[in-house]
Amino acid sequence: MFYLNSYAQYKGLSSDEGIDFLQRFGVEVQRYKGNLIHNYIPTPAMAGLWNNDPVMQRLAASIPQPQPSAVQDPYVYLLRAIISQQLSTRVASVICERFLNLFPGRYPHAEAVLAMPAETLRAAGLSGQKTSYLKNIAALHRSTPIDPAHLEALSDEEIIRHLTTIKGVGRWTVEMLLMFPMNRPDVFPIDDLGIRQSIISLYGVTETGKAQLQKLTAIAENWRPHRTLAANTCGGPG
């Protein structure tokens, strides 16, 4: 991702596993110079966005440009994200399929998820904790639909605050939702270890601890209002 390379390496995924990981979320994947890229087309056109950042200019002129992700259901995206937590790509894929197959039309409507016995969900391979988290997501979706019609009116931070009220859903998960299914343009996932390591390497960051966080944040400030694009670019082939 930015991610395909940095995240997959961080997770210890092989190339095929990295592809499987993204395809489970409906993301198109291709290879570019031995690297995995999602929804990219070759063009240096975005180099002009980074006039104040020579590192980004060099990257933008030499790698394909990230394109908007395919439209995805944000509610189902969150369910899949929870199922996939702390699992290998292949295991997560199997369990996601089992989970979806429990529901008519393979769609986990909130009422159906809430009514599904915990034992049935655990038999599909879900832990008791993940079963609880999935029901938490369904409960919020039933009361305040997690869909574009409701989310698009909210700012990024409002969406993060709203969805992280769900026990089991953290800020990083919501940032991925904002960046990919929702294609929000100015998201910077500072807590993502993969993208953080990419920036440290690309920009020669030597600070540690809080000073490092401040440095990375300052670098990303130059990318506004295109931080999502920049985060994807930093993780591409450099």
Strand order of the largest sheet: 1-2
The structural class is mainly alpha
Q: Spans of 5+ residues with little confidence (pLDDT < 50)?
A: 1-13, 32-45
Tally of DSSP β-strands:
4
User: How large is the radius of gyration?
Assistant: 18 Å
Count of DSSP-assigned helices? 14
Spatial separation of the terminal alpha carbons: 13 Å
The SSE string, one letter per element, is HHEEEHEHHHHHHHHHHH
Strand percentage: 5-15%
Shape: elongated
- Helix % is 55-70%
The description of the largest β-sheet is:
2 strands, antiparallel
Mean pLDDT: 81
Outline the secondary-structure elements:
Elements: H1 2-11, H2 15-23, E1 29-32, E2 35-38, E3 40-41, H3 54-62, E4 65-66, H4 74-84, H5 89-100, H6 110-115, H7 118-123, H8 128-143, H9 148-151, H10 156-163, H11 171-179, H12 193-203, H13 209-221, H14 227-234
Antiparallel strand pairs: 1-2, 3-4
Can you give a write-up of this model?
With 238 residues, this protein is mainly alpha-helical. The protein is 55% helix and 5% strand. The protein has 14 helices and 4 strands. A hairpin with a 2-residue loop joins strand 1 and strand 2. Helix 4 runs antiparallel to helix 8 and helix 10 crosses helix 11. The chain starts with a helix and ends with a helix.
At a glance:
The chain is mostly helical. 55% of the residues lie in helices and 5% in strands.
Q: Keywords, please?
A:
238 residues; mainly alpha; two-stranded antiparallel sheet; 14 helices; 4 strands; 5% strand
